[in-house]
Amino acid sequence: MKRGRFSEEQIIGILKQHEAGRKVPELAREIGVSEATIYTWKSKYGGMEVSDAQKLKALEDENRNAVRLPFGLSAARASRRSAALGLLQDGCGPHQERGFAAGVSR
């Protein structure tokens, strides 16, 4: 997922300026985003306080990590499993050197 240029705190500050009466085109021009971006932020963060946005982000991160874990695997076991799969995807087992795996010669 792409990391945004603005933190939740900054986004909520921008939305509070809009609620205080500043026009969306003016805000968009000032911060260098499109008007559609501000309206997207408004639909996601509208009416929230900074603490609410931080809780939302924590829940989204937790969900993202939970979806990645296959059922029945602990987080530690899943990280070991993904590291092992990374080695196998490179074509290298634990006792093989890179370059000699899968019939590749130098």
* Number of spatially distinct domains: 1
Output the radius of gyration: 22 Å
Subunit organisation of the chains:
single chain
Q: What would the principal axes of the Cα set say about the shape?
A: elongated
Strand content: under 5%
Report how far apart the termini are. 37 Å
Description of the structure:
Helix 1 packs across helix 3 and helix 2 packs across helix 3 (35-45). The protein is elongated. It has one domain. The longest helix has 19 residues, at 50-68. The protein is built from 5 helices and no strands. It has helices at residues 8-19, 24-31, 35-45, 50-68, 75-89. The chain has 106 residues and is an all-alpha fold.
Identify the notable features of this structure and list them briefly:
5 helices, single chain, 106 residues, mainly alpha, 61% helix
Short description:
This protein has helices at residues 8-19, 24-31, 35-45, 50-68, 75-89.
